[in-house]
Specification:
Structural class: alpha+beta
Helix content: 25-40%
Strand content: 25-35%
Largest sheet: 7 strands, antiparallel
Radius of gyration: 16 Å
Mean pLDDT: 88
């Protein structure tokens, strides 16, 4: 008997967030970076290796380095977090997280305006909804339109 693979689920949320007021000043806005999302994945994300696909023709040199180093087997999460690129704003990119050669999650930075997430793991979506309450389901057609 063969098992039915779990369904692919997707969501989207705004990349620009309102910041809470802090001791040094007023509230503002901040951009959700890849580094922030990797931290949100916690221990789950630590076991993943990452590949990066950038669709921007003129990426920041840090992103070009990340793409080169992610070619092949990919970059472990902690090594990726130590790089400059995950802390910068990209324009259009896919970051694919693998465990044992199996794709577990795709984090898509779309037009510097949203993050789109595709996975078969409901925990990932639940965790991201907890941190980004504006997250909403994304259809396959919407996913395809952002590529």
């Amino acid at each position: 008997m063969t098992e039915t693979p779990p369904p692919v689920r997707m969501l989207t949320f705004a990349a620009w967030r309102d910041s809470a007021p802090h001791a040094a000043g007023a509230a503002g806005r901040h951009y959700v970076t890849l580094a922030e999302l990797l931290v949100r994945l916690g221990g789950y994300g630590l076991g993943l290796t990452w590949k990066a696909l950038l669709f921007d023709e003129q990426p920041h040199p840090a992103f070009a380095r990340m793409v080169r180093e992610a070619a092949g087997a990919g970059i472990p999460t902690l090594e990726l977090l130590a790089m400059e690129a995950p802390h910068l704003q990209a324009v259009d990119a896919d970051f694919e997280g693998y465990a044992g050669g199996e794709l577990k999650v795709t984090l898509r930075e779309f037009d510097s305006s949203s993050w789109d997430v595709r996975t078969t793991d409901p925990w990932i979506l639940s965790e991201l909804r907890r941190h980004y309450p504006d997250a909403r389901p994304l259809t396959a057609d919407e996913w395809d339109a952002t590529n």
